[in-house]
Amino acid sequence: MPQGKVESVPQDGLTTRQRRNQPVLAVHTGPGKGKSTAAFGMAMRAWNQGFDIGVFQFVKSAKWKVGEEATMLALNELHERTGAGGPVEWHKMGQGWSWLRRTDDAEQDHAEAARDGWREIARRLSVEQHRFYVLDEFTYPLKWGWIDVDEVVETLVHRPGNQHVIITGRDAPQALVDAADLVTEMTKIKHPMDAGRKGQRGIEW
User: Which helix (H) or strand (E) element contains residue 175?
Assistant: First the structure.
């Protein structure tokens, strides 16, 4: 798609404006670095447009503070103080799920937490609570069988209104890839860790 020009125009009866304003389901997958980073870059664009943003992280610990979280929450504070941009909510699996149920089994607790997170997202989609969703590392609970892929695809494909959903993580299920409007595979060519260099401030966090 050079210079933003479409390769073909579908005969769907829609105007250019109607087609442009359709909601997007995007998947960032693959073994390379940058899947979440790209998603949060899109979230910053959405914030600038005044969209209501919901971020849901499915693997990262609730205790792990990442730079994107601090940035997006600062943007939310700016919105609340000045009206610029849009509101931002940030939730992480574990203590970050305010709706979480607890069990005594650690593995079951993680799986049930993921299911609780998805059920809450599905509820929010049904009432159009946010305009822009980031489901970070959501492919992993799908791959591990914690959440039913077909149910997720059905919910996302039939979500009401104009809600954009961005999903990140390796090994995206084929059914999700097939349903998405935008799929990007991050492929590693080189990485500092190949030379024994660990993650560093400002690059990995």
Answer: helix 174-179
